[in-house]
Structure formats: structure tokens, C-alpha cells
Design brief:
The chain is an alpha+beta fold and 171 residues long. It has eight helices and four strands; from the N terminus they run H-H-H-H-H-H-H-E-E-E-E-H. It is globular, with a radius of gyration of 19 Å.
């Protein structure tokens, strides 16, 4: 799949993206760094691989690398959770836009990325476990045509049905 390139203008043309104009236009927020990060073909492939091969949200495939970007890390670790929530949400919109342009659709389900720590007035809101220090959950996607592999729950149902069928036939 060819790389999808997103610009500020593309983001602001999107129905949901335009609701984050405050994030895009705030020079204190690292939105340009986030755009550059997600405009990388290898990262976009890892986002797809997270869904296809690991049954995880696309963000799970790149979240550790995203959080290690100096500007992103500095912003999330220095600013209060309510303010950083807008950037986290904008990142979710950006991921959706990229995934949709690569032939994926939202499932309406969220996948876990972390376990939130107890709130503390001394620390920004962060996680104590999981893949991500700053993101709790992220949207899941499926390919518009069909997924190449079935989920474990689907395969488990088939296995259980086959066992029931075999035991019924043996009687």
C-alpha cells in the first residue's frame, strides 16, 4: 500500500479534524511533529500490521515510538491531562484518516493501550502498565474487503463447535 501523506490542510478539511483547529494552530502543541511522524510509510505499515498480525489497534503498532519523540514526550509530561487530551484526540483523528485512506474502516470498538495511574496533583495523568505511558485506548479497524486472518474468538467458536459436533457424532 502506498504511503498516505497528511497535511495540516487535509486534517482541517476533515469533518472531525476541523473540530481540532485549536490543536493544529497552537504553537505550544507538537502537531507538526505528530504529522511528520505519521507521514512515514514504515510507521503506517506497522499500524496495519498491528491490526492484521497482532489483533491490536493501529496506534499500538507505533505508540512507543511516538511517545519517545522528544517534542511529544516533553508536551505530555509537562502539561495537565485536560490540555493534553485534545492532542491525544487529534492523534486519534489523524490515525483514522490515515487508516481510512489505506482502505480500513472503524469497528466501533476500542483496544487497550494502558492502565491509568491514580490521579496525582504532582504528576501529569499517565499509565502504570500496558504499551503506552499516555494513551489509555485507541480505535480498532478492519479492512473494507475482509481481514486476512480470523480473530482468536472466531477460531475458538469454530473449534468448540467442531468438538461438540464430533462428540454428538460419536454417540
Amino acid at each position: 500500500m502506498p504511503k498516505v501523506t497528511m497535511t495540516r490542510e487535509d486534517f482541517l478539511k476533515d469533518k472531525q479534524g476541523r473540530t481540532f483547529a485549536d490543536v493544529v494552530n497552537d504553537t505550544e502543541q507538537p502537531f507538526d511533529e505528530v504529522l511528520a511522524f505519521f507521514n512515514d510509510a514504515d510507521r503506517q505499515q506497522r499500524m496495519e500490521d498491528a491490526e492484521i498480525h497482532h489483533d491490536r489497534s493501529p496506534l499500538a503498532g507505533v505508540v512507543r515510538e511516538l511517545e519517545s519523540q522528544p517534542a511529544v514526550h516533553a508536551y505530555f509530561s509537562a502539561v495537565h491531562a485536560r490540555e493534553t487530551q485534545r492532542l491525544r484526540q487529534a492523534i486519534g483523528v489523524l490515525v483514522r484518516m490515515i487508516m481510512e485512506r489505506r482502505g480500513w474502516q472503524k469497528t466501533g470498538r476500542k483496544g487497550s493501550l494502558g492502565v491509568r495511574a491514580q490521579p496525582s496533583p504532582q504528576l501529569p495523568a499517565h499509565n502504570t502498565g500496558g504499551l503506552s505511558l499516555w494513551f489509555v485506548r485507541a480505535e480498532r479497524y478492519r479492512l473494507e474487503e475482509s481481514m486476512p486472518y480470523r480473530s482468536v474468538s472466531q477460531r475458538c467458536k469454530d473449534l468448540e463447535a467442531a468438538i461438540v459436533s464430533q462428540s454428538s457424532a460419536a454417540k
